[in-house]
């Protein structure tokens, strides 16, 4: 692998792992419910005024049911379960267990008929899961079964969220992408294209 590839790999590891470390530290000082409330409140304080100023809240009001379902399966429930599980699991194990999200997504796509699993995809998923197993090890130590089940539910929620977006909210403006693009380019992005 090239030096650039290794740097990108290391950067992704840090970007992926640091939030789990912060969650692990935070749940030592507050309840999981408080942590989820604070994460949500900070995001709302930062993003809702921007979305409102861009006129992107009104179109979402008519889609409140799928938006509520998305919020529940992608944010509220997984964040609560994740924070609770990290009270009994290491942050590195929690992050590695979430590598199951692509596997759950592939199975959901196959079950719903929205995606197909050919031998290459199955092989890729098997190699990925094998890599995670090699990193985590097959002996999960004194890991709490309840915490492991919670992490499995988090992976399922994280995989269900994109299905809801694709099926029910795909025509709506993608506020976070617009915000990132605007922050990177400095240009005011038109949501209509």
Write the layout of secondary structure elements.
Layout: H1 3-26, H2 32-53, H3 58-61, H4 64-85, H5 91-97, H6 101-112, H7 119-136, H8 145-168, H9 175-185
Q: Gyration radius, to the nearest Å?
A: 19 Å
Oligomeric state of the chains in view = single chain
What is the total number of structural domains? 1
* Structural class by helix and strand composition: mainly alpha
User: In percent terms, what proportion of residues is strand?
Assistant: under 5%
Q: What order do the helices and strands follow?
A: HHHHHHHHH
Give a count of the beta strands, DSSP E runs of length 2 or more.
0
Taken from the alpha-carbon principal axes, the silhouette is globular
List the total number of helices: 9
The percentage helix is: over 70%
* Biggest pleated-sheet summary: none
Uncertain regions: pLDDT < 50 for 5+ in a row?
A: 177-193
- How many angstroms separate the termini? 37 Å
Tell me, rounded to a whole number, the average pLDDT. 80
Written account of the structure:
With 193 residues, this protein is mainly α. It is globular. It has one domain (3-185). 75% of the residues lie in helices and 0% in strands. The protein contains nine helices and no strands. The chain has helices spanning 3-26, 32-53, 58-61, 64-85, 91-97, 101-112, 119-136, 145-168, 175-185.
